[in-house]
């Protein structure tokens, strides 16, 4: 077993132990953080590994959340088919958006993804009859049962979040160490060179975006199912910025970075809002400090200082 | 003469009315070392950029290994056995030397990690960078980065290797080593060499094609080209051919 695998399995063990060790408040937070970290890991495939700076990933998160939620609300689907509907919605949307947006690059790509995402947000508001627009809708506890397990119970919810997080973490770890993942990195570093080594870079970028969008959708679907609510704010622009921040803070292009960044940011806001109403000021200052002194993010800094081979 | 591995017919490219390459018919037989020379702005880089598919021609056809590749994207041409090294060094600077070459080998060898490692070790040994495999490419000197480019070309095992000014910016000692390397390579692949350094061209090339104002001015052995009055005129700019 490689050192990298041991490290990541160790992290999963620590998170699992959290289920019995953490006090109730932090236990609830951690479940939420793991689900949001799934979203961040999805974002990291596109941004961190392939260099596709999207400003519209909230549409994929929301596609998962609404694909799942509407399947329950309108079609009375069970939790499992509803989750799968959410995943399919994310995969389909990212394929369509990718085919169009990947004809651009750089700043244009940022703007195009932002616009697509805004269109999705407005569509959720426009079809308020089904989506209940801004208000959103609650997913009843009775609908949140998977294989006979009640996901509204905090312990079950933590385990479900942990299982999804573990699956995505190990999937990412495997992907980035395989040839396909190496090509993503090559494209991030020098796309023209990768193309002239014989790689179909459009296809590779499209696969990266679809994998990224589908994982983001899994995060969104799980968030709705585990916490019982779907709302338009999750499709808003701030939910496109969050994963970018989390990934930058934690370390873009590292497997553990998204979790570290999500955890750090979540508690930064949580703790500073305990001191002052102007908690965003504290958060902002800490962010500036981190960009100045650890521009590669937390895991990026670990990679630079301690272990060059950190995947 | 055996069937050419690469040929162009009427190949042309205009940029906003400026004819950079005009109606070039070009044949390259297999296993030859062909040099492509010409004064600055003669259209050499435009010509090879069309061969590899970085820019589309405005007219004419390109055939590689008997098949028309004019409409194929660059990556598909590389997959058929062309390789190209950039005039301005273009490596994956933040990745390790090993990974740079592995990326070149992997497209051909796929997920077979052992075969990829073997190909990388072999390619790096041939250019003399065997002991630098774990360094980041950006930590190499300029000359070594150029050698890394060649190693990436080698790892692709191409049937046609296009080298765009490979000796640019190299020291004399590095150029000597480069010449040895190209002579070895010539035994296993066809080489199209764009080069400014006349000593390198005269020593390595089997034949030379001279481009001037986007057209083929002359073609022949190094001795023939050396003696050609038109070529001398083009380089000296005296119009001496008529004198």
Automatic annotation (TrEMBL), chain A:
Instruction: Report the CDD domains cross-referenced here.
Output: TM_PBP1_LivM_like (cd06581)
Q: Identify the keywords attached in UniProt to this record, alphabetized.
A: Cell membrane, Membrane, Transmembrane, Transmembrane helix
Q: What are the annotated GO cellular component locations?
A: plasma membrane
- Molecular functions (GO terms): branched-chain amino acid transmembrane transporter activity
Entry's transmembrane regions: 33-52, 81-102, 109-128, 158-176, 206-232, 244-266, 278-298
Question: One Pfam match, by short name?
Answer: BPD_transp_2
Chief localisation class: membrane
The record's listing under InterPro entries reads: ABC_transp_permease (IPR001851), LivM-like (IPR043428)
Q: Where in the cell is it found?
A: Cell membrane
Q: How does it sit in the membrane?
A: Multi-pass membrane protein
Query: What name goes with this protein?
Result: Branched-chain amino acid ABC transporter permease
TrEMBL record, chain B:
Task: Please give the superkingdom of this protein's source.
Answer: Bacteria
Which Gene Ontology terms of cellular component type are present? plasma membrane
List the molecular function annotations (GO) for this entry. Answer: ATP binding; ATP hydrolysis activity
Q: Which Gene3D superfamilies match?
A: P-loop containing nucleotide triphosphate hydrolases
Q: Which residues form the ABC transporter domain?
A: 6-238
| Presence of the UniProt keyword Transport in the record | yes
Q: Which UniProt keywords apply?
A: ATP-binding, Nucleotide-binding, Transport
Q: Which InterPro entries does the record associate with it?
A: AAA+_ATPase, ABC_AA/LPS_Transport, ABC_transporter-like_ATP-bd, BCA_ABC_TP_C, P-loop_NTPase
Q: Which SUPFAM superfamilies match?
A: P-loop containing nucleoside triphosphate hydrolases (SSF52540)
Name the UniProt record assigns to this protein: ATP-binding cassette domain-containing protein
Q: Which organism is it from?
A: Pseudooceanicola pacificus
């Amino acid at each position: 077993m490689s050192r990298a695998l041991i490290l990541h399995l160790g992290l999963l063990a620590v998170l699992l132990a959290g289920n019995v060790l953490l006090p109730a408040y932090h236990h609830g937070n951690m479940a939420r953080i793991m689900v949001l970290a799934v979203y961040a890991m999805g974002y990291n495939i596109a941004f961190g590994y392939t260099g596709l700076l999207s400003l519209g990933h909230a549409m994929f998160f929301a596609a998962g959340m609404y694909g799942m939620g509407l399947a329950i609300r309108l079609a009375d689907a069970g939790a499992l088919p509803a989750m799968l509907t959410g995943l399919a919605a994310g995969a389909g949307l990212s394929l369509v958006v990718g085919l169009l947006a990947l004809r651009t690059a750089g700043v244009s790509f940022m703007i195009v993804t932002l616009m697509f995402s805004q269109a999705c947000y407005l569509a959720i508001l426009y079809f308020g009859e089904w989506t209940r627009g801004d208000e959103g809708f609650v997913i009843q506890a009775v609908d949140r049962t998977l294989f006979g397990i009640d996901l509204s119970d905090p312990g079950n919810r933590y385990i479900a979040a942990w299982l999804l997080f573990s699956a995505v973490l190990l999937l990412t770890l495997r992907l980035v160490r395989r040839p396909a993942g190496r090509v993503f990195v090559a494209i991030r570093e020098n796309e023209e060179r990768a193309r002239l080594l014989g790689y179909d870079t459009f296809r590779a970028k499209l696969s990266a975006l679809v994998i990224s969008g589908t994982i983001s959708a899994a995060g969104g679907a799980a968030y709705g199912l585990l916490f019982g609510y779907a709302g338009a704010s999750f499709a808003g622009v701030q939910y496109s910025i969050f994963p970018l921040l989390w990934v930058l803070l934690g370390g873009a292009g590292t497997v553990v970075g998204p979790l570290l960044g999500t955890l750090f940011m979540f508690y930064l806001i949580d703790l500073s809002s305990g001191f002052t109403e102007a908690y965003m000021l504290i958060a902002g200052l800490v962010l500036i400090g981190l960009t100045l002194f650890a521009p590669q993010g937390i895991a990026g800094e670990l990679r630079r200082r301690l272990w060059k081979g950190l995947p | 003469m055996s069937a050419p591995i690469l040929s162009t017919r009427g190949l042309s490219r205009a940029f906003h009315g400026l004819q950079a390459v005009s109606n070039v018919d070009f044949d390259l037989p297999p296993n030859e070392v062909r040099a492509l020379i010409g004064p600055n702005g003669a259209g050499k880089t435009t010509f090879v950029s069309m061969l590899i598919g970085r820019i589309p021609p405005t007219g004419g056809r390109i055939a590689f290994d008997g098949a028309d590749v004019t409409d194929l994207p660059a990556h598909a041409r590389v997959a058929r056995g062309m390789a190209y090294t950039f005039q301005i060094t273009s490596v994956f600077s933040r990745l390790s030397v090993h990974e740079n070459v592995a990326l070149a080998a992997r497209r051909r060898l796929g997920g077979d990690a052992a075969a990829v490692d073997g190909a990388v070790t072999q390619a790096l040994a041939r250019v003399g960078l065997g002991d630098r495999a774990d360094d980041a490419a950006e930590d190499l000197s300029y000359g070594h980065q150029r050698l890394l480019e060649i190693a990436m070309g080698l790892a692709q095992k191409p049937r046609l290797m296009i080298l765009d000014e490979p000796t640019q910016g190299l020291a004399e000692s590095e150029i000597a080593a480069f010449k040895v390397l190209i002579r070895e390579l010539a035994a296993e692949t066809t080489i199209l060499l764009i080069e400014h350094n006349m000593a390198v061209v005269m020593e390595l090339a089997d034949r030379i094609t001279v481009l001037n104002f986007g057209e083929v001015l002359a073609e022949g052995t190094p001795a023939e080209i050396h003696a050609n009055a038109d070529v001398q005129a083009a380089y000296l700019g005296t119009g001496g051919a008529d004198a």
